[in-house]
Write a structure and sequence with these properties.
Length: 326
């Protein structure tokens, strides 16, 4: 990050620290809180409509099990791709809850919006973009889209091409040629290369980097992507990386200093932006006592270019004070 450039604040699933993730309410709140970009995780419905939902399943954040009992697959899960948009519109969204037997029904983040209130609906990508554009107009500002294509290879296994479906929505809403206002992100390198090579999008790409143990929907080796050779490879098709916080912050040294990897500078020297995830006030990494301390380490010490956060108000306020002239 250039010393005079303020990092961008990406509202992770909206202002999801306050309202259920990926609801229009959470996105409107994030917009009002001054987020620079709103994040959309996208999956497809049975009729091929891109909807804004983090999981390929509906059961962690909606009342699908009550409304459509009997529609689960053999693994007991309710898949968005098994439901038409008209059915998905009947669902009510609540705060994310655990599914396992021991904690089933309990909120993942108990301090957040009460999980018993299922007040919201699953938006389509087009609806969310229309709302963002409307708020930009009425509030006199410009906010970006930060779209993640979720599980593209799994969608292909279900005979769906989500890359084309997402680009079609961007075409229809007038965002497909706005590289300053739209990022595309994915855990799968091949999908990003398809978007650029075959589908010819001019939009900037962010290669998400996870842990190999997560079983993400990609054959790529995330340990390799973080090496100098791996970053050279990413720089051949992407404009930035989205690493996991522990890929940058390694804990405290014996003297108490924050230990940082060289990933940020290794990426930036190759022209790649660095937008790590996920900054949560209620889930701080080991050795970090406050959200401000977390932001200090990543912004002042590591020099990241942006950050995904469930609390865009806190990040925006921090940056206004930390970098007032930027
Ligand atoms: O897209 C960045 C970050 O959101 C990746 O993690 O699981 O929250 O989509 P996830
Ligand atoms: Ca995401």
């Amino acid at each position: 990050m250039n010393a005079t450039t303020r990092p961008i604040v990406i509202a992770h699933r909206g202002a999801s620290g306050y309202l259920p993730e990926h609801t229009l309410a959470a996105k409107a709140l994030a917009h009002a809180m001054g987020a620079n970009f709103l994040e959309q995780d996208v999956v497809l419905s049975r009729d091929g409509t891109p909807i804004v939902l983090h999981d390929i399943h509906l059961d962690s954040t909606t009342d699908v099990a009550q409304r459509f009992a009997g529609r689960a697959r053999d693994d007991g899960r309710f898949y968005a791709i098994d439901f038409d948009l008209g059915e998905i519109r009947q669902l009510r969204v609540h705060e994310r809850t655990h599914l396992d037997a021991a904690r089933g029904g309990h909120a993942v983040y108990p301090q957040r919006f009460p999980a018993q209130h299922a007040l919201f609906q699953v938006p389509t990508l087009e609806e969310e973009i229309d709302m963002l554009a409307g708020l930009d107009h009425s509030r006199g500002c410009r906010t970006g889209l930060y779209i993640e294509l979720k599980s593209p290879n799994w969608h292909r296994s279900q005979d769906r091409d989500m890359s084309s479906a997402v680009l079609d929505v961007l075409d229809k809403t007038g965002y497909s040629q706005r590289p300053e206002q739209v990022f595309l992100q994915c855990f799968d390198d091949q999908t990003l290369q398809q978007l650029r090579g075959q589908l010819k999008t001019p939009l900037p790409m962010i290669q998400l980097i996870g842990e190999n143990s997560w079983g993400e929907d990609s054959k790529v080796d995330y340990d390799y992507l973080r090496t100098p050779a791996g970053l050279d490879y990413v720089a051949s098709y992407a404009q930035g990386i989205g690493p996991f916080l522990p890929h940058i912050y390694l804990g405290r040294s014996a003297s108490g200093d924050a230990r940082l990897s060289t990933l940020v500078t290794d990426a930036q020297t190759r022209g790649l932006q660095v937008h790590p995830y996920t900054f949560r006030r209620d889930e701080l990494p080991p050795g970090i006592g406050s959200f401000t301390e977390l932001l200090d380490i990543f912004i002042r010490q590591a020099g990241v270019d942006g950050l995904f956060t469930d609390f865009p108000d806190l990040a925006s306020t921090y940056l206004q004070h930390a970098m007032p002239a930027a």
